[in-house]
Amino acid sequence: MPTRTRGGTRTHALLAVGSAAVKGTRLAAGVAFVAAMVALPACGGGSDQAGTVSKTRGTGSAPDITLRAQTHHPRAGAPWPIVIRAHDPAGRPLAAEVRYQYLFGGAVVARRSHYRFRGTFHDTFRWPARSLGVPLTFRAVVTTRFGTRRLDYDVQVRR
Fold first, then answer.
1. Low-confidence residues of the chain: pLDDT under 70
2. From CA 76, how far away is CA 74, in angstroms rounded?
3. Which residue from 12, 21, 61, 103 could staple onto 137, CB 3.0 to 4.6 Å apart?
C-alpha cells in the first residue's frame, strides 16, 4: 500500500508471504522471495538519489536507456530508490513504458508494475527481510518507439 513521505516521494513496502519450503537453504530463500514478490504491491513515485548505473548506451540511431540505483546491496526494509532514463539519439526525452521483473537463478520469478513516463522515471522500493542474502536480479523492461530493452541489476539484500 503506498504511503506519502516528505517531498511527495511514494514508497511501497515489499510484503512477504509464508513459504512451505525448508528453512535455511537457498531454495527456501528463493521460494520465500517468489512468495514475497507475488504479494508485492505496485511501485511508483520519485527520489533524487542515485548511484550505480546499468545502461544500454545509444549508438547511431539507438536510444540511451539507463537504470540507476544507490547500491547492489540494499538494506531490508529501507528505501531503495531507482531512476530510469530514456532519451533518443539526439538526447531528447522519449515516451516510454517500464515493467519490472524479478529473477532468481536467471529465471523470472515475478513480474510487477507497469508505468508510462517521458524521459525520466523515479521509483522507490523496500526489499523484504525474507530476501536477505539471496542473489537476485532486478530487471526493468523499458519499451520505447525504438523497441524494448532489458536493464538487469544484480541485488543481494542485507540487514
1. 1-60
2. 6
3. 103
pLDDT in tens, 110-120: 999 999 999 99
CA dist., res. 95 & res. 73, Å (int): 30
Which grid coordinates belong to 51? 548511484
| The length of the chain, given as a count of residues | 159
CB 81 within 8 A of CB 69: yes
Instruction: Give the Cα-Cα-Cα angle 85, 92, 114 (nearest 5 degrees).
Output: 40
Residue 26: what are its φ and ψ, rounded to 5°?
-65, -35
Handedness of CA 12, 80, 117, 99 (dihedral sign): negative
The position carrying cell 513504458 is 97
Alpha carbon dihedral 20, 22, 27, 30, in 10-degree steps, equals 40
